[in-house]
Specification:
The protein is mainly alpha-helical. It has one domain. Helix content is 54%, strand content 8%. The chain is built from 11 helices and 5 strands. It has a 3-stranded mixed beta sheet. A two-stranded antiparallel sheet has the order 1-2. It is globular. The termini are far apart. The structure holds zinc ion.
Length: 266
């Protein structure tokens, strides 16, 4: 009955086949994502390094070519920008915007590992995790309605909800994850996407092992927010045989992305 108050009680089905609550339209989510990205772009410093930009573009393009259109931007037009920022982070937003910090490239050191990061982040968008998270907040707080969120993009009361729901900003993305359920789903589809793009899917395991080691160095901030690293790695291992099948199919079909990592001068 409560849902009737929103005018539309929306449910959708994720690409993994799970039913989810999505109270906000795709168009509105795209608009929120685009607005958030524009403001991030305004605050951040973009990398001017051509080699770094070409590399990130190459891996992004390979992933974008294979992902489903549903949940993505209208017309399938994704854009990736590289932010000059030493924190190891990357994120993707509704509306088809991707941000990669230069610091992410020190952690995801191979094209396959970067593909694992991008597959995971793009997975959150295609699985409408931001919409679901915001919809859950709306249900939990009777003072907020989907209509007021939709109307109040710029209003400060809803900024935290929108920013948190979308997962934008320096502290979100890889660094501050979604719920365990959402992380697990993004891992699963992300590993399949990278494999379908022709990247060896075991590299997703290497990536998250490295991330876990990194987290071990700043345990308080990391472990309070992250799903169990062991559980994550076990799930990626379990998903690996299916991902390898996809990888072999992709390779047989001629997918072999040749993205050259930038030289790192220490
Ligand atoms: Zn995530």
């Amino acid at each position: 009955m409560l849902l009737l108050g929103f005018g539309v009680a929306a449910c959708s089905t994720t690409i993994t086949g799970r039913r989810q609550l999505t109270l906000i339209s795709d168009n509105k989510m795209d608009a929120l994502g685009l607005a958030a990205f524009a403001s991030l772009k305004h605050q951040a410093k973009l990398s001017q390094d051509q080699m770094v930009n070409d590399y990130v573009q190459c891996v992004t393009t390979a992933i974008i070519e294979v992902i489903p259109a549903d949940g993505g931007p209208k017309g399938g037009k994704w854009e990736a920008l590289v932010f000059e920022d030493p924190t190891p982070n990357a994120f993707a937003l509704p509306g088809g915007k991707i941000g990669v910090h230069t610091g992410m490239l020190d952690v995801a050191t191979t094209p396959g590992q970067l593909a694992a990061v991008l597959g995971h982040e793009v997975g959150h968008v295609l699985l409408r995790h931001g919409n679901e998270r915001m919809s859950q907040s709306i249900l939990a707080d009777s003072a907020i309605s989907a209509g007021s969120v939709a109307a109040g993009v710029a209003s400060p009361e809803y900024r935290d909800l929108i920013v948190g729901g979308l997962g934008v900003g320096a502290q979100y993305g890889v660094l501050l994850p979604f719920s365990r359920k959402h992380e697990s789903e993004a891992d699963q589809v992300g590993q399949i996407f990278m494999a379908q793009a022709g990247f060896y899917p075991a590299e997703a395991i290497t990536l998250w092992q490295t991330m876990a080691e990194l987290g071990g160095k700043s345990p308080a901030q990391w472990q309070s927010t992250h799903p169990s690293d062991d559980a994550r790695i076990a799930r990626l291992q379990a998903n690996l045989p299916r991902a390898i099948q996809e990888y072999e199919k992709a390779r047989a079909a001629g997918k072999n992305p040749e993205c050259v990592p930038p030289v790192v001068y220490e």
